[in-house]
Amino acid sequence: MNRALTRGGLVDWVAISLALAVALAGFWPVFGGPAFIGPALAGVLGGAAVAWVGAWQRLSTAPVAVGLVAVYFLVGGAVALPTHTIAGVIPSGKTLSDLAVASITVWRQFLSATVPVASFEAMGLVPFIVGLVASGLALSLAWRVHQAAWALIPVGAAAVAVIAFGASVPFQPWVQAGLMMALVLSWLAYREAVGAPWAGGAGAAMATGAAAAR
After folding, report:
1. CA angle 138-130-74, nearest 5°?
2. Confidence band for 169, pLDDT divided at 50, 70 and 90
3. Using one digit for the tens of pLDDT, what is the confidence trace for 56-99?
4. How confident is the model over 102-149, as pLDDT tens digits?
5. What would the DSSP string read from start to end of the chain?
6. Backbone angles phi, psi at 86, to 5 degrees
7. pLDDT-derived band of residue 196, with 50, 70 and 90 as boundaries?
């Protein structure tokens, strides 16, 4: 049976989404508050939706990638460039053009901006993109690959990205590391218990690495 349609698939979604939430919380200092939460949440949910449809319909990698790009252009304006959209939600031609350019330039601008970055336009695209890509990849792997530990690679990459683009003073790193480890190991134990192997030592190394990066 398609795992994305089962209770186990729901557990996968909850566990990976919570792990990504812990990782993305590291954006709090650089945004100077909770302004990143909306874009990050939109990204995580958008990526999950694309991954679920892809797993449900058993789509190949290319359609799933196209779906993630479509979500970026359809939702990115509302979460990060609302003044460029129609009624703050509907993307216009200018929105799409600005999002295409921002997908390349926002990373350098984010690194060079003065903290907190929440006052600068388009900075919400960084947590949005990180959440979107990490969620889409992690859940696609969790729902399609027999060895669950592969899904931890995008989660770990998201944690590393947050560190790279975060403030010089991290946000509760030990708390984040502890929560990440607890979530990941609990999820892997669940997958093992229900008969979905998690790649043994390799999985443990991925789990430890993702948390240690905090």
Report:
1. 100
2. low
3. 999 999 999 999 999 999 999 999 999 889 998 999 999 999 99
4. 999 999 999 988 888 988 889 999 999 999 999 999 999 999 998 889
5. --GGGSHHHHHHHHHHHHHHHHHHGGGHHHHTSGGGHHHHHHHHHHHHHHHHHHHHTT--HHHHHHHHHHHHHHHHHHHH-GGGSBTTTB--HHHHHHHHHHHHHHHHHHHHSPSPGGGSTTTTHHHHHHHHHHHHHHHHHHHH-SSGGGGHHHHHHHHHHHHHHS-SS-SSHHHHHHHHHHHHHHHHHHHHHTT----HHHHHHHHHHHHHT-
6. -90, 120
7. low
The pair of three-digit structure tokens given for residue 8, joined into one six-digit string: 């186990």
120 torsion bin: left (phi>0), alpha (psi -120 to 50), beta (else): beta
> What are the structure tokens assigned to 77, written together?
């304006």
HSE on the CB side for 207, CA within 13 Å? 23
Please determine, for residue 24, whether its predicted confidence score (pLDDT) is greater than 70: yes
By the 8 A CB rule, do 51 and 143 touch?
yes
* pTM, rounded to two decimals: 0.88
